[in-house]
Amino acid sequence: MTDDVAKTNGTNPAQSKAAAKGAAAVKWADDRLGLASSNKKMIRKVFPDHWSFMLGEIALWSFVVLLVTGVFLTFWFVPSMAEIQYQGSYDQLRGVEMSQAYATSLDISFDVRGGLLLRQMHHWAAMLFIAAMLIHMMRVFVTGAFRKPREVNWLIGGVLILLGVVEGFAGYSLPDDLLSGTGLRIADGLIKATPLVGTYMSFFMFDGEFPGEAIIPRLYTVHVLLIPGLLLALIAAHMLLIVYHKHTQWAGPGKTEENVVGYPMMPVYAAKAGGFFFIVFGVTALMGGLLSINPIWKYGPYDPSKVTAGSQPDWYMGIAEGLLRIMPGWETHLFGTTLSWNIFLPGQVAPMALLALILAWPFLEAWVTGDKREHHLLDRPRNAPTRTAFLAAMVTVYGLLWAAGGNDIIATQFHMNMEHITWFMRAAVFVVPVIVFMIAKRWCIALQRHDNETLLHGYETGIIMRSAEGGYSERHLPISEEKAFALTARERDEVLPPASKTDADGVADKGYRVQELRSKLSSFMYADNVQKPTAAELEEGHHHAEHEHELEAGLDHAADGHQFDGHHSVSDETLRH
Ligand code: HEM
Ligand code: HEM
What range(s) does the Cytochrome b/b6 N-terminal region profile domain occupy (predicted)? Predict the structure, then answer.
């Protein structure tokens, strides 16, 4: 800054005076806030470029849209369950007794200018927020971006997704229409199913018997203050950790575990990210303007004696719904109380167990491999077949439960028996993910093999050559150095040797069982993987290719300009890996 001022000093006195004033102001602020030095670093912060890094940003910007539209909604929404008579402009409900929360939600939809747009934008942004988080989480998982040093950010992410879902559910409950109340009724059932303390918890939450008068004002505080505050704090921590760790990158020439290659924050990345905010805002505005969502006027106010046909929860609740629908009606009666496993297991235990398993995966992987190094280069999904297959299995569980949540719709649309669908789903959620796991794992391994083929023998050109003897063969050409580098920029997987019952001195090893489990998991996870070719194999591959080249020398013209240059198909740099 002072350098710039000195330069201007020499040129124009009027300008230099203004610049000196500006510098003084900046110095004043910097002395107190220390921003200049930290900003200097931030400005030069490098961010690698890949489309998949956009997913976290979609989550971020849709959260901003939620904050902005949510604040507007608070101007008109009254979170009260006090009964009033609706007198707004929606004819079909005029004169109906309803809560003030429902009446003001109707007002926002019909009588506040732009209100429906904002309500719908808010709701679409909520859908997008959770979808973006989930897909972002999958990309982090499948590329191994959760490895050291990013495990804490992975766990923060886990809390973010959980809070996001609860926040969405709380929002969905606020308008107090029939769908809201039906959702709350399910939540009440889930809470009551907690063994021993369930009823007390429900009474505590609803301030007495369901539905009571307290739930909407309470959910309102949770929805506009508590959870947004927590989300904001955690997102800030998430971002700070990304800056601190630096972003991961894909392997390629010049990109190592020690550097980050990409665009600087200023001006490129800031402009890109800033522009992206407007795209996300624009898309949600378009959706809010054009696509109807949650038409709360359709079913009327909440009435515990009514249920709606055809009501659907928001998409992210689909799996909870599916779990509840396929669970057999198990109950235990003990000392005059009923333990409702039919609700407790699918409603609380199963979703939490699934989330815990996914969140624990990085730690499980690190324990099995014993790898304590930092990783800044991403794994190609195929190079971690077990991890990728596990994700495929989880997505399958999710999809099946989602379908199970719509078993009534499947039954009516496809003229099927609902009982049959339920029975099918009960078996399918255990069997199909295992099959998917096996297929996905073999698929990854096949792709690894394909990579090795390409490295050793070049890529298939589709050009069929006829030899002097009359035989046909396909022409292969070497891949570029960049590609060869990227393909070989991975490590060999090590499989732990079987555990031994005694240590080196023949004394029984106490940790034997744990070591045995670890080595079994290690061979389950890594033994079938195809390792990248060794330097010697690559060398041999290219000699072989050269030999072929000599044989084919006279027939070379068809390969439209590509020179077969065996020496360069595998560079020295590649061999280093
Ligand atoms: C409110 C929700 C979230 C927001 C706003 C958010 C935002 C971001 C952004 C902008 C990035 C950098 C760009 C990118 O890699 O996409 C990032 C990276 C990351 N996020 Fe999130 N995220 C959220 C939720 C999650 C969740 C649910 C998880 C996982 C459970 C997660 C784990 C991570 C990790 C491990 C990184 C570092 C990845 C790397 O350096 O390659 N995040 N997040
Ligand atoms: C992650 C953040 C958020 C999510 C996922 C979310 C989700 C939702 C959803 C799904 C609804 C139901 C909308 C409908 O009636 O169709 C809703 C309603 C509402 N939200 Fe949010 N919201 C979030 C943040 C906020 C914030 C930060 C505020 C205010 C500061 C807010 C204020 C409201 C209000 C006042 C309503 C009731 C309006 C109405 O339904 O008529 N929300 N929210």
Answer: 25-251
